[in-house]
Amino acid sequence: MPDRRTPSSWRLLRIRAGARSGLLASAAATVSVAVVTVCVVLAWLARAVDAAGDASPPGASAEEVADQVDAGTAALASAAPALVLLVAILAATAIAQLARLIAAAREHETATIRARGFSRTQAWTTDAAEGGLVALAGVVAGLLLATAVTAVVGAAPSDALVQWPWAGATGVLLAATFTIAIRRGEARRTATRGARVTTAALVIVVLLASALVIWQLPLARGAGFDPIVAIAPAVVLMAGALVALALFGSAAVAWSRPAAAGAALEPGYPARQVARRIPIYAVAVLLVALTVAQAVFASAYSATWTAMTTDSAAVRAGADLRVDTAPQSVTPDDVAVAASVEGVDAAAPALVAPVEIGSSDAQLVAVPSSAIDSVVSSAGGLIDKDALRASASAEGEGEGEVVVSDPVPLDEAVTRLRVRADLVSPSGGVVTDVRVVALLFDATGAPARIALDGDPLVDDDGTATLVGEAVLPGGTAPWRLFAIVAGTGPILSNRSVSVTLAEVEAVGQGPLDIGGEVLLEGGNAEEVLWLADGGARAGGAATPVEAVVTGTLASRLGVGVGDPLEFRYAGTGRRGAAVISSLVDAIAGATASVSLFVPMETLLTSQLQLGTSIVAPDSVWAAGSESAADGLSAALGDRPVITSAPGVAASVVGALVPGWWIATAGSAVLSLIAAFAIVQTLAIARRRELGVLRALGVTAGRQARMRAAELGGVFATAIVLGAASGGFVSWLIVPELVRAVTPGILSLAGGVTVVWVPLLLAVAGLALGLVAIVAVAATGVGRAARAATVGEESR
Question: Which region is the signal sequence (predicted)?
Fold first, then answer.
């Protein structure tokens, strides 16, 4: 027989606690998913930091790697909180809505307990205890589940358990949110106006905070914890989701009026129901839109980070692979060895030298013109290779001539070079202390300097003839001869000697059409006897080279295309002159934005117009696979290899890319849990209308289809608005966020790109989950409508 005893207050509390056990389970599941997501994200980032130095770049010292890891970790410290903050916002929003639904479902039980004399303090204590138990159950389940999930993403289960303080903090936050929300829900009749004011204030705060973030983010640089970087994604995405929610509400109200004007039940009835229940649908729309926006943001961040870091690294490296040899110079044999490494497609010498232009420090980059197409990287289009090729044509854009380098080609069969020079002293006497040196380019453009040794033969008339020859050095044939230099020894301190180049022979090819004459004054004198500059040096003055300069340099100096430019090689006193042939955004291989490019042949030729020595290349650039870095380092004396891939510091920050996708997966599960609970609660609250519709002749199947259309329209609109807001937010802050958290990003690297496959998979997964929820809700409506009746109170 029924128990007719008056229930005690504690018994009423137990009955009240179990009144909506399904919503309580959903709240615990929300806490669990939030804990799993936070633990897995933090475990992944911690694992990336720990493993950062394992695969150190070839040739890099342990100290250098450690410094780069520290730099990456400092930058990661600013960006990592954004992932946790966004998950916390989603989970808190979801659990707050679940708490409000629980409060609404327990309205009668709460009123009964209050009528029994249940005090406000007792109510707070009871709700706090309930929230604590829900959070505790969720934290324990979340930690256990996180150990399994971390194994799936490649981390150790212990990595997740180590994050228990963060799991506890998440649980405390959600327990507090649950308690406050359920208390506000129970007191909503007397606090509706205050709740609206508080909600409006929070929306204004979020919008103002997002404006502050957008304003300050371009000034942020990840060198430690930066609050702007930490909150930027969460705040701006939340602001975008709120704007999407406002658009949803306006669109729902606007659509309901013309939809209801028709005579048919559809689409007017579903449209009116959505317009009447916007406060109920608001949280579901907000969560779905925010999750989709986060997926779009993760996709944009992933693709943009990869493009910006790779392009920046490629610009700085200049080629796929680069080995700097300073203070030693690069020889043709070094280039040949590099080209023979497995995985290397082509190699060339390069010069990256500091220069001074006026009061500005700049960088001069030179590579052989033949290497522009085969070796120099385009860096995702940031390097204008057409402009570099045009500078090698030496057509000139300004007034006067420019340097033309016209080396004499030698056949591949040539193995030796021989010269015959006539020596005459105007002051009389026999001259024997004279040396001749030849300068050549090999097939890769690497310069070499060889001494043509030989003993002078004294003629009867007192003159002398020097016959010198030398074997071509190691390198890549065919060779090209571009200069011959003559010099005297120290014993001729008070005498002069005239040197006439009588014959130059390439052994294996024959005599070359080369000639020249110089007068050497005193001891240790040296002059260029012949230079392959098209005869320009015969005019007695040096001619400028064609140079490609960055827009930053041109803007700083106030010059443009066709204007002359003078520069000094830093620390040497050597000078050079150039004519600007074109302006570009970046110069390959330059780490400074103030830089210029000159083809190596014309640069070395111009140096020999002013002296007898050259600034030799100090770097080997190679095109090929990144996997060839180890072999290239070993081949060139275990020197460090710079690649076009992101460095160690950037790779540490790169852990954010999968971190964003992990957080997005967790957010999608949170949204689905909240959406399912909201839809099920809404179905319970709308049971009475099923009988009314049935009495009006609306079949159960038709009611199910209308509910499916109603829910499907809401969720589809939320997905579309979320995608739009995510795209807009990505356009606003993703490039600046990448610069703020990643060391070494060039200012010219930018533009938002999207990786489509993960994005489509993420949105499709969320959409399938929502379709399942709609299908379950529609099936439940159809089942309930078949047995629904109209109660007396509804008649």
Answer: none
Angstrom distance (rounded) from CA 739 to CA 747: 8
- The residues that bridge with 549 in the sheet, in sequence order, are 583, 596
How far is the C-alpha of 29 from the C-alpha of 155, rounded, in Å? 23
Residue 80's SS3 state is helix
Q: Which residues does residue 517 pair with via DSSP β-bridges, in sequence order?
A: 500
Give me the amino acid identity at 558.
G
Residue pLDDT, tens place only, 590-636: 888 889 999 999 999 988 888 888 889 999 999 998 888 889 988 99
Helix, strand and coil in the chain, % to nearest 5? 55, 15, 30
Length of the chain equals 795
Asked which of 69-73, 304-308, 398-402, 558-562 is least confident by mean pLDDT, the reply is 398-402
What is the distance between the alpha carbons of residues 141 and 123, in angstroms, rounded to a whole number? 27
Domain map of the chain by residue range? 12-315+648-794, 319-400+542-615, 408-532
Please tell me what DSSP assigns to residue 543.
-
Burial 723-753 (b: 16+ CB within 10 A, else e): bbbbbbbbebbbbbbbbbbbbbbbebbbebb
The full DSSP string for 575-631 is EEEEEEEEEES--TT-SSSSEEE--HHHHHHHHHHH-S------EEEEEE-GGGHHH
**Assigned token pair, 640:** 């460090």
- List CB contacts of 1: < 8 A, sequence separation 6 or more: none
CB 732 within 8 A of CB 236: yes
Nearest to residue 598, comparing CAs of 622, 621, 576, 620?
576
Residue in this structure with the two tokens 């070839």, named with its chain if needed? 58
- Contact (CB, 8 A) for 300 and 753: yes
Nearest to 605 by CA among 432, 414, 440: 440
The CATH architecture of the domain made up of 408-532 is Sandwich (2.60)
CB 297 within 8 A of CB 734: yes
DSSP string of 271-324, one letter each residue: HHHHHHTHHHHHHHHHHHHHHHHHHHHHHHHHHHHHHHHHHHHHHHHSSSEEEE
Helices (DSSP H) in 106-226: which residue ranges? 107-115, 120-152, 157-161, 164-186, 188-216
What is the tens place of the pLDDT at every residue in 550-586? Answer: 988 888 888 889 888 888 888 777 888 899 999 998 8
Identity of the amino acid at 293:
A
